[in-house]
């Protein structure tokens, strides 16, 4: 399995290279540059800025310089945040986004499994319809509605939790809930569906026939099979949580990296956009690998040699 | 129903919560527009940076709470009769936060640094009036050749290339703030980092966490430290204005630097005087392309301006947070006695204006039955969209149909800068200093960067040159007034609205005076329980 993992990681290198190259040139096709703002800059000033950031060099040369720096772990200077380099900016924000995303992911998995199994075990009862209603709500109501409402109710009206900021555990609660809610809904639906199927499958029926206790049948035999679709969903979910935190970060004023996806592109902060692209690409590759490895652990039919 | 319960709950929550979120009585939690892009006074360009830098550093001159220019590090100054030489006497007790004295040499070093091409200073051109500064910035002259000399430790002499009556105003801008030369030499670009920054203002930098907060501590070495009430200032960046409002209502911040227009009515209703809407030194306008066949006719441009109901834009689209504009230079600006010239049609009723505009265009063969189509270009924003839609509707009554062309801000301004084709384009201008020249210079024929309209009028250029050479402020403002009269006759830009600043200020925060520059240095503010 270890050699399989290594092979997968190695094969990711050309993928990343293609992504970086495509992103670099696509970014430059967009009209306007990092120094085009409401206030037009004096020609001399603009020339100085372009020279400072190497934008006066031919594009292929800029690309070569960027790649060279990237190999040494330097993502270049940010065009907008001029006191920092891109890898410093991302290093500051990434742990926060990851903490937020991971907590939301765990919450989504635990709650989703619980609710989904509950609904499946009591199929077509009130509990089932209630769970489905909540799940549908979670999927349909967007973050930019849920987040401000949560903050309005719990911070402004009830004064139980802070409305914004980062650093205290209580500042994490509302953002995590806002971020996890749509994922809880998806996982619930996935688990419910596969659980219903698993409960009717031969091996569960056999387990029941053996007279095993109901709890053991559900947790050890049914859930273990039912959780597989939810595990495959983890890869896309992790990426979605990183990028999907844009709204949540803004509403709760969190210093994560989600904001750079949109802001960086709008500001034409070329290097910052490249940095976020690289991070997300790595994330997707690594998470897909983790999912595949988890499969091997959970599903006896899957083996990597 | 929900709304009403929410309202009363909001109110009680604010009262109960009080300032529970603030760390201590003398820590001012200050909402800022966004994260500063830099804390380097020579690379700075945004208002968010200006607010912080003004607290960290003190320039030769400073703004008072009401935005009057007052002595800062310079306790007095003299201007030579020809208006070219400024001699500043620096205060004896001006000190850096590490105890070093602030000297004239520090200012020489700073002014040279901002002009060096490799600094990449976005606002270098604001100090071009200094002799040889532009040549240095172009890389054509040595920094030492600039007209800035230290006569002795406490006497600074600045020579200008030509008289600039608003030069002292220019020095209030954050680009005029000094850097501590030894720190810059030691740390390079990193001199702005906490622990490395040495500043000479009322506060020093304690922490800077990107997109989270910037913490300032009182500077005990500041010459006016005894009058500074606050111990700490925490600048919190708010990309989303509504988030700041919620944080304010939850008692987590003492002030917000901007408010969402759509929420103003409710906020005024619930918090009364805490909502501050004040005139601001800026104009929202549409540039008209004078090279366009249809728009080349000055009468057509007049008709288009006449038919725009600015009161509707200000009240309905911008919820009273903008003011209808009847001139390009905003009212209340300095060095402009008597203000902008009056324009006849602004005295007429909206109905009469529409009729007159229709009449003018009909004489040109344009009417709803034989319409023309023009393209209106604006940058993405809900408010710009609403304003553009309303104006298109007003123009359609005249037989002028509008097609929209929407881009994000960077693409929009790059298009204008590169002299791309357009008919009508939205733009806005916030003055950097309080002088009409800072508005009227935009459409001088050789101003490639700002003259989007490609306005080319020798008489206008002549007047601007005359004004530049005139040192008598009364006479100068008469000349500038003539120039603005030409502007309003020829309309390179159609002025639509004056900007307002909008803030939310806690009743516990005192010393906050509304002013046209919207500057509120923390050194003048204090908190009460």
From TrEMBL, chain A:
Gene3D superfamilies per UniProt: MetI-like (1.10.3720.10)
Protein name, entry field: Oligopeptide transport system permease protein
Pfam family, one: BPD_transp_1_N
GO CC aspect terms: plasma membrane
Subcellular location: Cell membrane
Organism for this UniProt entry: Cribrihabitans marinus
Classification of source organism: Bacteria, Pseudomonadati, Pseudomonadota, Alphaproteobacteria, Rhodobacterales
Membrane-protein topology: Multi-pass membrane protein
Keyword Transmembrane (UniProt): yes
TrEMBL record, chain B:
GO biological process: peptide transport
Gene Ontology, cellular component aspect: ATP-binding cassette (ABC) transporter complex; outer membrane-bounded periplasmic space
Species name: Cribrihabitans marinus
Subcellular location: Periplasm
Keyword Transport: yes
Annotated signal peptide: 1-25
Domain spans labelled Solute-binding protein family: 68-448
InterPro entries reported in the protein's UniProt record: Peptide/Ni-bd (IPR030678), SBP_5 (IPR039424), SBP_5_dom (IPR000914)
Gene3D superfamilies: Dipeptide-binding Protein, Domain 1 (3.90.76.10), Dipeptide-binding Protein, Domain 3 (3.10.105.10), Periplasmic binding protein-like II (3.40.190.10)
Name the UniProt record assigns to this protein: Oligopeptide transport system substrate-binding protein
Molecular function per GO: peptide transmembrane transporter activity
Record-linked PANTHER family: PERIPLASMIC BINDING COMPONENT OF ABC TRANSPORTER (PTHR30290), PERIPLASMIC OLIGOPEPTIDE-BINDING PROTEIN-RELATED (PTHR30290:SF10)
Domain of life: Bacteria
Keywords recorded for this protein, A-Z: Signal, Transport
Protein's UniProt keywords contain Signal: yes
SUPFAM superfamilies named in the record: Periplasmic binding protein-like II (SSF53850)
Family, similarity comment: Belongs to the bacterial solute-binding protein 5 family.
């Amino acid at each position: 399995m270890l050699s399989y993992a290594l092979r997968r990681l190695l094969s990711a290198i050309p993928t990343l290279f293609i992504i970086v190259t495509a992103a670099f040139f696509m970014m430059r096709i967009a009209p306007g540059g990092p120094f085009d703002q409401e206030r037009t800059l004096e020609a001399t000033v603009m020339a100085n800025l372009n020279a400072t950031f190497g934008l006066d060099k031919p594009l292929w040369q800029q690309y070569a310089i960027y790649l060279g720096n990237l190999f040494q772990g330097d993502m270049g200077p940010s065009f907008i945040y001029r006191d920092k380099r891109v890898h410093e900016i991302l290093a500051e924000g990434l742990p926060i986004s990851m903490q937020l995303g991971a907590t939301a992911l765990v919450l989504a998995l635990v709650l989703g499994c619980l609710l989904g199994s509950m609904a499946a075990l009591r199929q077509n009862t009130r509990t089932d319809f209630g769970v489905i209603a909540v799940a549908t709500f979670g999927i349909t109501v967007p973050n930019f509605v849920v987040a401000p409402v949560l903050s309005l109710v719990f911070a402004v009206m009830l004064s139980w939790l802070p409305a914004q900021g980062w650093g205290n555990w209580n500042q994490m609660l509302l953002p995590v809930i806002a971020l996890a809610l749509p994922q809880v809904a998806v996982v619930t639906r996935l688990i419910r569906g596969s659980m219903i199927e698993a409960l009717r499958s031969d091996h569960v029926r056999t387990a029941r026939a053996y007279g095993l206790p109901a709890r053991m049948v559900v947790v050890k035999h049914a859930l273990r099979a039912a959780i597989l679709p939810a595990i495959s969903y983890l890869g896309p979910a992790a990426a979605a949580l990183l990028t999907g935190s844009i709204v949540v970060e803004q509403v709760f004023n969190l210093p994560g990296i989600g904001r750079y996806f949109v802001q960086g592109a709008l500001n034409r902060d070329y290097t910052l956009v490249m940095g976020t692209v690289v991070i997300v690409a790595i994330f997707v590759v690594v998470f897909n690998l983790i999912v595949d490895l988890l499969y091997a652990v959970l599903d006896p039919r899957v083996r990597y040699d | 129903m929900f709304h009403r319960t929410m309202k009363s709950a909001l109110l009680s929550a604010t009262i109960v919560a009080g300032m529970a979120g603030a760390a201590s009585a003398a820590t001012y939690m200050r909402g800022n527009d966004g994260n500063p892009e830099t804390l380097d006074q020579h690379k700075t360009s945004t208002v968010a940076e200006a607010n912080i830098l003004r607290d960290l550093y003190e320039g030769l001159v400073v703004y008072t709470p009401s935005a009057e220019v007052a002595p800062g590090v310079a306790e007095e100054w003299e201007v030579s009769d020809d208006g070219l030489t400024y001699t500043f006497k620096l205060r004896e007790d001006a000190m850096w936060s590490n105890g070093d004295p602030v000297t004239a040499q520090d200012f020489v070093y700073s002014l040279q640094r901002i002009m060096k091409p490799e600094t990449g200073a976005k606002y270098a051109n604001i100090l071009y009036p200094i002799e040889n500064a532009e040549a240095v910035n172009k890389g054509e002259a040595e920094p030492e050749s600039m007209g800035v000399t230290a006569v002795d430790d406490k006497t600074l002499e600045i020579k200008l290339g030509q008289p600039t009556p608003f030069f002292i105003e220019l020095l209030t801008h954050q680009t005029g703030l000094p850097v501590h030369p030894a720190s810059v030499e030691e740390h390079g670009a990193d001199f702005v980092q906490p622990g490395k920054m040495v500043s000479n203002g009322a506060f020093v930098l304690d922490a800077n966490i990107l997109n989270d907060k910037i913490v300032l501590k009182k500077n005990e070495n500041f010459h006016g430290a005894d009058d500074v009430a606050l111990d700490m200032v925490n600048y919190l960046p708010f990309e989303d204005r509504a988030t700041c409002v919620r944080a304010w209502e939850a008692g987590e911040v003492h002030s917000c630097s901007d408010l969402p227009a759509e929420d103003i009515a409710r906020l005024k209703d619930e918090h009364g005087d805490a909502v501050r809407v004040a005139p601001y030194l800026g104009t929202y306008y549409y540039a008209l392309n004078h090279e366009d066949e249809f728009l080349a006719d000055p009468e057509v441009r007049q008709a288009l301006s006449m038919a725009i109901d600015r009161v509707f834009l200000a009240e309905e689209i911008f919820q009273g947070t903008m003011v209808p504009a009847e001139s390009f230079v905003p009212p209340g600006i300095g060095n402009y006695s008597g203000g902008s010239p009056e324009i006849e049609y602004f005295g007429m009723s909206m109905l009469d204006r529409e009729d007159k505009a229709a009449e003018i265009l009909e004489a040109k063969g344009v009417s709803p039955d034989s319409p023309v189509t023009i393209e209106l270009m604006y940058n993405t924003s809900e408010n710009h969209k609403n304003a553009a839609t309303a104006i298109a509707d007003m123009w359609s009554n005249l037989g002028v149909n509008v097609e929209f062309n929407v881009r994000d801000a960077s693409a929009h301004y790059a298009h204008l800068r590169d002299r791309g084709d357009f008919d009508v384009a939205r733009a806005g201008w916030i003055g950097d200093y309080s002088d009409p020249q800072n508005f009227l210079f935009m459409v001088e024929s050789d101003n490639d960067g700002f003259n989007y309209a490609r306005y080319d009028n020798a008489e206008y250029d002549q007047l601007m040159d005359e004004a530049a050479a005139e040192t008598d402020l009364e006479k100068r403002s008469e000349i500038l007034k003539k120039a603005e009269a030409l502007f309003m006759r020829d309309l390179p830009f159609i002025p639509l609205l004056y900007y307002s600043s909008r803030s939310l200020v806690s009743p516990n925060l005192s010393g906050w005076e509304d002013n046209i520059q919207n500057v509120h240095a923390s050194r003048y503010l204090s908190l009460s329980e």
